[in-house]
Design a protein that fits this description.
The protein has about 180 residues and is mainly alpha-helical. It folds into three domains: about 60 residues, no CATH class; about 35 residues; about 40 residues. Helices cover about 50% and strands about 5% of the residues. The protein contains seven helices and two strands; from the N terminus they run αββαααααα. The protein has a two-stranded antiparallel sheet. Helix 6 packs across helix 7.
């Protein structure tokens, strides 16, 4: 049964299909069509296609950079070359975890037992909780007032919100008047 399934799969992926190419129709296997589509997605910059392509190339032993290694070596500074090499090694799975490096004795903190003084942050101002309006009898509110957004509060409590806005404007006007009087003196 397993051999029959494998044989059926191989026949299906190797089946030739007519593909239009400009004016002509070309016969291609489904594998060839799939690889062309994968390469087109890779060329467009799709990250999943890049990952799949690198994985397939690694399994097949294909080195993408073989042709361009000298050009890359001339173009990249040494530190970027190291980064590129380590990235390619990591992506292909051919890298062992790096050994831990301890700092040299000169860099070690001798008096680590003494905690460094820290600046205390200024005390935060207490925020006065917003007064809640009395609930209207017979109205089913979607959630408690304290959990509503400002838009929901305006929708469910329009009169109360208008009154609060009026009071806020009066407070701001009084502050501005007091500021103007202080400035004149």
């Amino acid at each position: 049964m397993r051999l029959d399934l494998r044989k059926a799969f191989e026949q299906a992926i190797n089946k030739k299909v007519a593909v239009p190419r400009g004016d002509k129709t070309v016969l291609m296997t489904r594998v060839e069509i799939g690889l062309e589509q994968l390469l087109n997605q890779f060329a467009k910059g799709e990250r999943h296609a890049r990952r799949d392509l690198i994985e397939y190339a690694d399994k097949l032993g294909i080195d993408f950079l073989a042709e361009h290694k000298q050009t890359l070596e001339r173009a990249l500074p040494l530190n970027l070359k190291v980064v590129l090499d380590s990235t390619l090694a990591r992506l292909s799975g051919n890298v062992a975890p790096a050994p831990r490096v301890l700092a040299s004795p000169q860099l070690l903190d001798d008096d680590a037992a003494e905690p460094e003084p820290t600046l205390s942050s200024p005390p935060k101002a207490e925020i006065e909780p917003e007064p809640e309006p009395p609930p209207k009898p017979g109205v089913n509110y979607p959630k408690p007032f304290s959990q509503m957004t400002p838009l929901q509060k305006r929708a469910w409590y329009p009169e109360w919100c208008a009154q609060m806005e009026k009071e806020r404007m009066e407070r701001e006007k009084a502050k501005a008047t007091a500021k103007a009087k202080a400035y004149k003196q």
